[in-house]
């Protein structure tokens, strides 16, 4: 059972940190700070936020496994006290995860310049449609 938590955390951490490295090394070349570094900063924040819930699950399950095998230890007590602080409650974790996905989406949209591509698509489609509409009006 603990292995599934280890595997989940390891895969998620590996994927997210590798995407962060990609965004760092292949950042958009822009004139100002935010358009250039924003995708990397947002994805780094998303990585931390998305790893909170799996890390808590992993820590709690490792503590429980250690308790079953070795009995009570003060280290387990301190770790579980930290893991069950109100800031790591279910609602907070859901908020952290949702915010992490929002940051990931925003950072990815900035990385691929989604706004610029959408504007370009509408302008070119409008430019193609405008002469046809003008031709129809003049008939």
Properties at a glance:
single chain, 139 residues, mainly alpha, elongated
Descriptive report:
The protein has one domain. It is 86% helix and 0% strand. The protein starts with a helix and ends with a helix. It contains 5 helices and no strands. The model has no long low-confidence stretch (mean pLDDT 91). By secondary structure, it is mainly alpha-helical.
What topology emerges from the helices and strands here?
Elements: H1 2-25, H2 33-70, H3 74-83, H4 90-111, H5 114-138
Helix pairs in contact: 1-2, 2-3, 2-4
Average pLDDT figure:
91
Q: Kindly state the number of beta strands.
A: 0
Q: What pattern of helices and strands is seen along the backbone?
A: HHHHH
Helix content: over 70%
- In total, the number of domains comes to 1
**What is the terminal separation in angstroms?**
74 Å
- The oligomeric status of these chains comes to single chain
Helical segment tally? 5
What Rg do the Cα atoms give?
Answer: 24 Å
The share of residues in extended strands comes to under 5%
Low-confidence stretches: none
Main sheet record = none
Short account of what is shown:
With 139 residues, the protein is mainly α. Helices cover 86% and strands 0% of the residues. It has 5 helices and no strands.
């Amino acid at each position: 059972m603990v292995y599934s938590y280890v595997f989940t955390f390891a895969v998620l951490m590996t994927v997210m940190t590798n995407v962060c490295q990609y965004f760092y090394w292949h950042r958009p070349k822009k004139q100002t700070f935010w358009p250039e570094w924003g995708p990397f900063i947002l994805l780094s924040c998303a990585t931390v936020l998305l790893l909170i819930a799996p890390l808590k699950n992993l820590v709690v399950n490792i503590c429980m496994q250690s308790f079953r095998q070795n009995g009570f230890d003060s280290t387990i007590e301190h770790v579980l006290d930290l893991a069950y602080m109100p800031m790591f409650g279910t609602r907070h974790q859901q908020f952290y995860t949702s915010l992490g996905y929002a940051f990931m989406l925003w950072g990815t949209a900035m990385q691929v310049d989604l706004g610029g591509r959408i504007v370009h698509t509408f302008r070119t489609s409008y430019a193609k449609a405008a002469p046809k509409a003008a031709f129809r009006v003049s008939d």
